[in-house]
């Protein structure tokens, strides 16, 4: 569980302060130098409902808010119910949403 600040040990990974030693990319992990793979991904999650992170956290990481709102959940459930009961109506809705998006994009490009 990730709080509102980054632990200094984790910060060494998040900052990706890699260096080359013996032909391998490495990072400092505590007092040791460990091999670092460019494909390595590190995910942090929090149970905090509304965390307030310092600017340096946003600079070093990609923060994604997966909070589910009541309105969003209601819209998704309604779409699922309509898709099950009236699939043609849901297909028409999808086409209309795509058409609206296309028109808005065209309108934006003409401005």
UniProtKB/TrEMBL annotation:
GO cellular component: dynein complex
Gene3D superfamilies: P-loop containing nucleotide triphosphate hydrolases (3.40.50.300)
Gene Ontology MF terms: dynein intermediate chain binding; dynein light intermediate chain binding
Segments forming a coiled coil: none
Biological processes per GO annotation: microtubule-based movement
Domain of life: Eukaryota
Matches recorded under InterPro entries: AAA_9, DHC, P-loop_NTPase
Dynein heavy chain ATP-binding dynein motor region domain: residues covered: 1-108
Record protein name field: Dynein heavy chain ATP-binding dynein motor region domain-containing protein
Species lineage: Eukaryota, Sar, Alveolata, Ciliophora, Intramacronucleata
